[in-house]
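mind reviewing both lines:
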Amino acid sequence: MHIDPRRLVLLLIAVLSAYAYSTRTVAQVSDTNSSKLGSIKGRVLSDGQAVINATVTVSNVNSPQQTRGVPTNDNGDFEIKGLDSGVYRVQATAPGYVSLPGDPDQEIHRVGDSVTVNMIRGGVVTGKVLTADNDPVVAVRVRAMMVRDANGRRPPFTTPSLDRLTDDRGVYRIYGLQPGTYVVFAGGRGIYGSGANAYDNDAPTYAPSSTRDTAEEITLTSGDERTVDIRYRGSAGYSVSGKVSAPATPWMLVSLARVVTSTLDFKISTYQLARGKGFEFKGVGDGDYVIWTEYTSDTGETVLSEPKQITVKGADVTGIELIAKPLASVGGAVVLEPSTIAECKDKRRPLFEEILVSLQRAKSQARKEEKQLELSTYGSSKASPDGVGSFQVRNLGVGQYEIDIRHFARYWYLRSLTLGTTKDPTANDLARNLLTVKGGDRVTGLKATLTEGAASISGQVELPEERRSDRMVLYVVPAEKEKADDVLRYFAVPVEADGSFTMGHLPPGRYWTFVKPITPENEKNSLRLPSSAATRLKLRREAESAKSEIELKPCESVRDHKPALAGN
């Protein structure tokens, strides 16, 4: 078969052109996709020194079950690449080290951020577990459980206890403990109810040789090592059993927590399969307990039972029935209001995926629920909006909630928080009212309006010599009488040790600014709660007396601002 060489050349050119076009198209698509990706990088340090081979993980706020991690290098540096735009939680772990306790919101970062994660040397508890005859108790589980943190506060119920098995000498060593006060105990089941030795069905023996009520407490600081010996009692524990009723789930997690001085203490868990006949805990000592069941699906939805209180006293407890139901959710949208003012032209707009919507059970409500042994695990939740601003905050327990909108666009501010439409404009104002959530609620219609035109101020606080060691807080309160009831115009920020301060996201308008020492009262108080109306009124009176007024224009950045010192 004869083929014209000229046609062959033309055919070859066409094929090569098509291949080149295809290659360019693929490259362009790849470039387009990669341009949407970014990284979070930083360093892990302890006392200013690099923590080598620490594991740094990031998890998207909307998909906490999907995490990615990398080790740090010899300089303590890390970089996690290929991240979609969004808000991420950044955490680090390293053998023998613990993260500094602090505000969980400090772990939240955006793609492109450079992060410094500070860690400290953990404490160590070691010792021997011996019988009454001084024989070693081999392969018994020993746990260290925090009962108060370094500041003397009860730790979050979600704080895990660490456990280790004794060796052939009866010696155990538990390291990587946060500073705080602990009780140490041996025997009983593991955290997830699994058994591995002859001591799993025993009631726990607390150091030195007691029950939980008279347990010895030890205090650890960073890098501290304490020796705690346990004389093992070998008392038989009891059984707690029952059955779970729940929506269609492959299994249910059942948890049992000891109640000590009206708060939840050590927790163990077990499972009931969908077709299982029930659940059972063994090795439970005498005492008061709370028991509940829960399950979280791959989509992040959680079902939970109401906690039941039981008492174990010299006998097994059977026939417990737990009924799981869906938790509540709150849905809505973030709305952006751009400005046409010339000063705000070409300013960066907020990215929906970088906005964080947080719901936190009100502190007064949390204290009330704590007395009722409400599971604080479901007293807060966060979410980021999708590409069009819609969001859904899931897994909320019963209670009243504060709402916080965190964003990173410098020239934008939160103008309003509303829920639905009612005839009374103050009834749906969630900036002034708490949001009440009932069991299984599907609340919709929450609207957060961000408006362009925010101003910012920065400067230095000038303190007299005798006040320079004081910790100070800067207050910014509305000077305009008609804005006195607008809680979104009240601001407070701690002043840095060197006297500097920066405050952004301020709506345009007239304000009074002043500083005063931080006290336990104003350090923990939120200016925007409905219960803080008296505090806001008091601040306005102090601010008016201080006579330091500033007028902020849209998109204005005021530098070298000098606020008044309250009381001068």
User: Anything to note?
Assistant: The domain at 123-231 is CATH 2.60.40.10 (Immunoglobulin-like). The CA atoms of residues 146 and 539 lie 38 Å apart.
